[in-house]
Amino acid sequence: MHVLPYLWQVALADKSLRQRLGSAMVGLVLAKSAGLSVPLLFKHAVDALSAASGSGSEAAMRAATMTAVWALVASGAAKALSGVAAELRTVSFMPVAQSATRRVALHAFEHILSLDLSFHLERRTGSLSRTIERGTRSVGMIFRAVVFTFVPTIVELLVVCILLWRAFSPAVVLLVLATFTLYVAWSIALTTLAANRRQEANRLDSLSSAKAVDAMLNYETVTSCGNVGLECKQYDGLLRQYQHAAVHAEQASSALNAGQAVILAVGMTAVLCAATMGWGGARVGTVGDLVMANGLIIQVWLPLNFLGFFYRELRQSLVDMHAMFAIMVRGTQLPDGHTNLPATSSNGLALELRDVHFTYGDRTVLRGVNVRLEAGQSLGIVGESGSGKSTLLRILLRLYDPTHGQVLIDGVDARDLRLASLRSAVAVVPQDCVLLNDSLENNIAYGRPDATHEDILAAASAAQLDRTLAQLPEGLNTVVGERGVKLSGGERQRVALARAFLRAPRLLVSDEATSALDSASERAILEAMRTLAVGRTSVSVAHRLSTVQHCDRILVMHEGTVVEEGSHAELLRMDGLYSRMWAKQSEAGPDEVLGEEDKRAAKEHVLDVVAR
Q: Which residues of 522-534 are buried (b: 16+ CB within 10 A; e: fewer)?
């Protein structure tokens, strides 16, 4: 079982939790022992009164009455002790279970964040969130079911069988075991059916939750396209399917409960009748023996009712946890390295890509890219959409590993670098800066969580956020809303830039950082980025050639291959693809990068490069 090791880890790691676990076990033993003693004390009281009533002696009657009273008082005390011990057991075990649940949740959360980009591109946020929520919630149920229900019930059943064997006969014990076996078999069969139906209901529940989350995250798209009705119709369709599956699951649960009640009633009646009639050579003892048998059987049957409930919940919990642990056992395609980035006096990183190929599924994205960049130099990457520019950046950041080839960072293979060491040296200014639903200050500090308030103010000023802060009544304490919707696109880009200033990176990566901005905002952000890039290595992807013309080197990509390379001036003198792109953008605007003629020329160039 995947989850039980967490219980032992928690107990071994914390002395106080270990003591609480021990106290819970003591409480369990006390509760069961006291509970089993109640039928024995009732037998003693009944036998004493029965014997005294037959003697006809007043003195014997008084003595028997006192004996019965003390036995009843003792049974009452045993009931009270059993109830108190059971509650103390629960109170003692609760911190242990909660701590183990916290560990499972943290492990799952940490593991998901450590998985590679391909997993996160395929996942559905709502469905994944619901899977983890149900899985972690199931941990406590499994602990309670296994530790406090299944194991104690089996032990209690064995003790009751021994007592009934001694008081009556093996035949009576066989009836008890037959009833227990039939009860368990029925529970397993019907619970399996109910669990299968519940699994289907959970699948539909996850789909409906994912649908709702997707629609709410993309509220602007839904409303602007006038598709509220469409989204509601699809959501209602999923809810109807879930409703149908949930009803079928509940029907199976009801059949389970009804069958359990019938089995227990018939079994208990058969056991008592057999004991009374002396079936199978049973010794027909005193009235107290029958009272004891009734009490012992009830003592076992009551947990069986809960056993059925806990078994159903356990199966449901296992269904929920199976989905979560299926994610947790999934390995990352980007194993962590063992080497830190070399410590140098340079503020930049030297980059080299050697014959890098990358294939995603059946699609080849990069075809033999070779790049060498000295520390402190700047690199621009241009080309039409789908040429592999963003993929190249992701490989540099080691969000992907190349299918073939090698990426060297300061002379070290990126696969050998510790991810934490690499990421700590990099700052990214993305095309779409997604902000947390938190204060502006905390969003900037996300670039370096240990930064002081003064550092954050300095970074905001360097990113030219002063005007925005002056217009906000709460300044840095302003909550920016979900994904930063309360800020404009340019303001979100400045926040991303402020994060980069705060990180003081050795490698600055920009992926279409100004593509959605107006000319004034673009100039301001480019000026700030150039300031930040001074003395550092920078790599910029752009459609607008004007944003990379200052770079030391520019790569022109087409269909995953570098077709031209050089500085802005050198590329213009080549009078090739880059030159035509520059002329077109100068005449028709920045959005028209490659025309059909340019694409044909680039394709011929690629074929020529491959042939060579």
A: bebbbebbeebbe
**Closest among 203, 212, 113 to 420, alpha carbons compared:** 113
Question: Are residues 71 and 44 in contact, defined by beta-carbon separation less than 8 angstroms?
Answer: yes
Judge whether 140 and 317 are in contact, CB under 8 Å. Answer: no
Q: Are 202 and 242 in contact (CB under 8 A)?
A: no
DSSP E strand boundaries for 133-241: none
Give the model confidence (pLDDT) of 459-479 as tens digits: 888 887 888 888 888 888 888
Instruction: Provide the pLDDT confidence category of residue 590 given band limits of 50, 70 and 90.
Output: very low
Confirm if 209 and 126 have CB atoms less than 8 A apart: yes
Backbone φ and ψ of 59, nearest 5°: -65, -45
Q: At what angle do helices 15-55 and 287-328 cross, to 10 degrees?
A: 160
Rounded to two decimals, what is the model's pTM? 0.58
Q: How far apart are CA 282 and CA 164, in angstroms?
A: 10
Distance (Å) of CA 205 to CA 214, 242, 245, 254: 14, 6, 10, 21
Are the CB atoms for 356 and 368 separated by under 8 Å?
Answer: yes
204-256: per-residue pLDDT in tens? 888 888 888 888 878 777 887 778 888 888 888 888 988 888 888 888 878 88
And the tokens for 160? 């009751």
Contact 190, 308 (CB under 8 A): no
Residue 254's H or E segment, with its range, is helix 228-277
The span from the CA of 99 to the CA of 11, in Å, is: 9
Q: Long-range contact list for 128-132, CB < 8 A, 24+ apart?
A: 128/327, 129/209, 129/213, 130/205, 130/206, 130/209, 130/210, 131/206, 131/320, 131/323, 131/324, 131/327, 132/105, 132/108, 132/324, 132/327
d(C-alpha 208, C-alpha 215), whole Å: 11
One CATH from 3.50.50.60, 1.20.1560.10, 3.40.430.10, 3.40.30.10 for 4-328: 1.20.1560.10
- Residue 297: C-alpha distances to residues 153, 176, 278, 281 (Å): 12, 8, 17, 19
CA 59 to chain centre: 73
E strands of 512-552, at which residues? 537-541
* Contact by Cβ (8 Å): 578, 382: yes
The answer to whether the CB of 435 falls within 8 A of the CB of 480 is yes
Give the residue from 468, 535, 541 showing the smallest Cα distance to 498. Answer: 468
Query: Would you state the structure tokens that stand for residue 249, as one six-digit string?
Result: 């699951």
pLDDT at position 610: 43
Domains of the chain: which residue ranges?
A: 4-328
Concatenated DSSP letters of 371-403: EEE-TT-EEEEEESTTSSHHHHHHHHTTSS--S
Q: Is the dihedral of CA 406, 411, 416, 420 positive or negative?
A: negative
Q: How many angstroms separate the CA atoms of 103 and 100, rounded?
A: 5
